[in-house]
Each structure stands twice: as C-alpha cells, then as structure tokens.
Amino acid sequence: MNVHNRFNSVYWQQHLANVQLDLSIAAYTKVPEDWHDTNYIPEFNKLYYIVEGEGFVQVGEERHVSQPGQLILLPAGTLQSYGTIPDAPTFGKYWCHFSAKVGNQHLFDLLRTPLFVNVDEDDELRKQFDRLIRFQYAEGLSAAFRVRSALLEIISMFLDQSPRIQVNTSKSPSFEKMSRVIRHIEDHLSSTFSIEELARIVHLQPNYFIQTFKQVTGQSPIQYINRLRLEKAAQLLNFTNLGITEIAETVGIELSYFSRMFKEYTGYSPSAYREYMLNSQTGPMQK
C-alpha cells in the first residue's frame, strides 16, 4: 500500500473514530400484525436484528423481505417504509434508534452500506443488544460508556460483515483538497516545504490551510511531514543497505537532527533500530 492509499485509510479510520453517538431507545419487541409505516423520513438511524418471523423494510426503491439472522440498517434522512407480511408470523426483533454524526454530517451519509447483513455471531450480537437495553437507563457513571461501547460494537459488526462499503468522499470536500497536498508531499519528500507553498496547491490562505489540514489529518502540516519522513526512514533502514547519512538526505532531514528525531519517533537510534529489525526473529530487543 503506498503512502497516499494508507493516508486515505488512516484518515477515514481517524475521522470516523470521532463519531458522536446518541442512543434514543433500545428494546426487544414482538411486533403486532398492524406494524407498518409508509414513506416517512426519520431524523434518526435504526438497527433491527431479526430473531424470528418475517416482514419487509424499504429504503428508497430498495425493498427487502427480512429473515431471522439478519441485521438491518435504516439510515437517518432516507425515505422508508416497513410492515408485516399477510399470513406470516411477525417479527421478533432487537432494535434501537440512535443518531451518529461525524462533525455535522450523518455517519451513514459518509458511508454507503448495504441495507442488511447476515450475522455470523448471533450470540455476540444478542449480548450487545442486551447491554444496550440494560444500560440505557442505568444511573452509574459508567453507563454512558457501556452504551457507547455496545452501540459501537453493533455498528462495527454490521460494517465488518458488509460485503461492500463505499466512502462518500464528495461529502468531505476538505478530504479531497488535503489529499492533493498529501500527494505533493509524498512525491517530493526530500524537498523543503513551506506552508505558503502547500496552501497554494489548494488555493487556501495559510492560516486556514493549517486549520483544515489538522482537522483532516489530526496533525499540523509539519508534524505530518516529519512523521511521513520518519516512516520512510524506518522502511529504508529495514529494507535497504543505505547508510544513515544517505537515508537522512533521502527523507529530507538534516543529519544533525535525524538521529534525535528518529529516536523520539521509534524509541531507538537509527543504528539500533536497524539492528533490532535484523535480529527481530531471534527475540525482542530489551529497552
């Protein structure tokens, strides 16, 4: 994986890790025969885990007759319908309503997911829904953490078992701009960069560029460039026979600073790191 592709992955991992969750309600229900609604748009997300019975759900034009063992996601802000099926046993389902936002954007505007997944870990999913139900009204200081943990685990199980997930980058224009900057940096890693130069690439004022870059990457431009250089240096130490001086030049760090910066980053001097990597199969180096 090249640096830019890894940036995409790491960026979205970090970006989505900032999701703000708010559980409205969680329960287990055996729905009545008149359970239905048509063409409405909720402001919250819904998760259904079907334990028994049959019914249908629809998001937009996609209609699905659900079966036991399926976890269904109905995203906020989408046109939805649901209901029972004549002469079929009705749903018994775990369910919850919740909001999930990254900044001011709905999580499932950023992620395009399937309507449902087939669950492999039935016992674990039931356990997490039971935790939601148990702790949603608990009074202990840890209750909110436990609710968040259970809800994150359920969402993670849905994502992990989804055959396809698309990241909607058009919903994050800052990502597109900073991605262009990252490509420039990785293509000229041995060069000296100025904030003004990088800001011009995306036609931003320097101060605003710094703020935007940090929002996207979690680091200032200088911090990000230095980390990129040190990661490259570690690769060169591990996979080439280049000398320390040549590696420092290749990654654009003055030799007088290179050893100190590398040790701050890895905990080892460049020569000790190389030795550790060469001998890593014989056992860990003691620090």
Automatic annotation (TrEMBL):
Record carries keyword DNA-binding: yes
SUPFAM superfamilies linked: Homeodomain-like, Regulatory protein AraC
Sorted UniProt keywords: DNA-binding, Transcription, Transcription regulation
Pfam family, one: HTH_18
InterPro entries: AraC-bd, Homeodomain-like_sf, HTH-like, HTH_AraC, HTH_AraC-typ_CS
Protein origin, superkingdom: Bacteria
Protein name: HTH araC/xylS-type domain-containing protein
Gene Ontology molecular function terms on file: DNA-binding transcription factor activity; sequence-specific DNA binding
Start and end residues of each HTH araC/xylS-type domain: 179-276
Source species of the chain: Paenibacillus selenitireducens
